[in-house]
Amino acid sequence: MYNFLLTIHIIAAGIWLTNFIFSGLINNQLEGKNLKENLSLVKFYLRYSNILGMVGSLLILFTGVFLVISSSHFGFFTMKANHWLTTKQIIMVVILLLTFISLIPKAKKLKALLSGSSLTDGQTELKAFNKINFILNVLVLINFLFALSHRLMG
Question: 110 and 122 in contact (C-beta within 8 Å)?
Fold first, then answer.
């Protein structure tokens, strides 16, 4: 069961990391362009980011919790033996807080602006959404790198 959960955990990390690449590609397409002309691309971006974020984060969260519970070597927020895991857990809490406090409200506001007539505010909200999304993606990447390099850190 542990190996199955670990496999799902790794696949979920890959799903979540694809958001980093996808966001970069979409933002390159949108940079300097009129929001009104690219409305369908922005809506697609919001929808796809939402799906990747939900699937990746929920699978990571649940499999991570079950991996810690099912292993006698790991614990929650204990720096004694597994400081790399505690750091990952703290980063995950920060990711969840940023997601619920900032990203989701910005995405909802942006979606509402896109379906309305005031697209000038939409451009500002899109930039704010992209900034938070980038920060979250960097935190996810850092967590992924901790997972890959924890054997080197001891």
Answer: yes
pTM, rounded to two decimals = 0.84
Nearest to 73 by CA among 2, 135, 152, 15: 2
Distance CA 56, CA 113 (A): 27
Element (H, E) at 144: helix 119-153
Q: What angle do CA 8, 100, 6 make, to 5 degrees?
A: 10
Of the candidates 83, 82, 13, which has an alpha carbon nearest to the alpha carbon of residue 52? 13
d(CA 133, CA 138) in angstroms, rounded, equals 9
By the 10 Å C-beta count (0-12 exposed, 13-18 middle, 19+ buried), 25 is classed as exposed
For 45-98, what is each residue's pLDDT tens digit? Answer: 889 988 988 898 999 999 999 988 887 777 777 767 677 788 889 999 999 999
**Closest by CA position to 85, among listed 147, 141, 142, 8:** 147
Rounded CA gap, 112 and 42, in Å? 12
**Where do the domains of the chain lie?**
2-153
